Structure prediction request, 320 residues.
Amino acid sequence: FPYRMNIFTQGTTTQNKAGVRVSEDAKQIKANDFGQVFYYELFPSAMRVPHWHANGNEVGTVTSGKMRVEIWEKSDKPSIYYVEPGQTWFIPKGKLHSLENVGSDQLKFIVVYDKPVTADRDFVTAWASLSDAVLAKSVGLTEADISHIKRTTVNRLSNFEQKVQQEPQHDPRRYKSDFGQIKPMFQSEAGSIVRLDKESNPNLSKIALQKTVLKPGAMRVPHWYLSGDVLLYVNSGVAYFTMLDDDGVVYHRLVRRGDLISLPVGVFNGYINVGNADLEVYEAFNNLGESGEITLQSGSQQFNSDVIRGTTGISHDSAN
Prediction:
């Protein structure tokens, strides 16, 4: 199944005393020119160090714990807000930001980028690229500080000393969203589909994130998207997944936590929750010019019964 990888078994895992980062390389999955999906776990008083992405926009969601997001973008006061399970954040490309665990439990979150190469840059790697003389003049560091930085060129996750009191939220650009506050596209006893896009948050003009939750035995009906390429990530549960690719090859596979599937625009797919717990799936979209999807049933209803009968060979009663 070349359109799938599991980030926990095939991705790149980096780990230190601050937490775990699991990343995927877009080149690992067929037809994925869209972006990347990363998974993080941060221990209490740990952070994703201040950094920026020169090439890509970032959208993410917290699945467990409490996160503090700080973004500095040349204003007098940085944007600061707190993200809890079911809530999301957005970071425009090039904006300096940090993600901190400010809760008492482990922080778990998923991050999606809309480019396959995000050009990830942080203080340590950027400073370490400078000569000692330039670094000393730029930021006023001592020789001992410079020596330490030069030895520590990979520092994505780090511990920090939390402030006694948390700063109040300051989110003037509304980078924060909440899946729980967005009207579902679909909701029933079988589950729900909620979509974070430019309609619910104007900042997301080039990327969208959709959350689907299915109860055991429920089905996401076979469909295809009109709105560009999709990266589908299974966060929890087990599903029986079906896909028909552009070459007419059919794939029937079990997918589970950590599986990431590339779905080019127009590719026919669907899945059933075959586990005993809820299935939670996130889908990232890279083109919002034309939103929407087509299912077999909705598509067939647009044609008269004679056309459907002639196409499929089903009975007159079924076609009607």
